[in-house]
Design goal:
There is one protein chain. The chain is mostly helical and 95 residues long. The chain is built from three helices and no strands. The model has no long low-confidence stretch (mean pLDDT 82). Keywords: Membrane, Transmembrane, Transmembrane helix. This is DUF3270 family protein.
């Protein structure tokens, strides 16, 4: 019985001592900087355009006499739809 326990402990020690030969690091894979910069530029442009369109559409809806809550919600939805279609066309023109 004790020999089985000793064997098991010895096997556990041997497993602990085994060295894994997987590399500790990876080679640097250069990103396509032009594509990354373009995506970053498009992201910030989308945020800016969305906020400007939301304010302008909300102003128009409020001047038409629509209640504030509905004007704000409609302006958010319209701005999101316009922004999505605009970004779709930008990416389709790039490819």
């Amino acid at each position: 019985m004790s020999t089985n326990v000793n064997r098991q402990r010895q096997e556990e020690r041997e497993e602990d001592l085994q060295v894994s030969y997987s590399p500790k690091y990876r080679e640097f894979q250069e990103l396509n900087s032009n594509s990354a910069k373009f995506r970053e530029l498009v992201f910030f442009a989308r945020v800016a355009i969305f906020s400007i369109m939301t304010v302008l559409i909300c102003f128009v809806l409020l001047s038409l006499g629509i209640q504030s809550l509905w004007a704000f919600l409609l302006s958010l939805l319209i701005s999101f739809a316009l922004n999505s279609t605009l970004s779709y066309f930008i990416f389709s023109m790039k490819h």
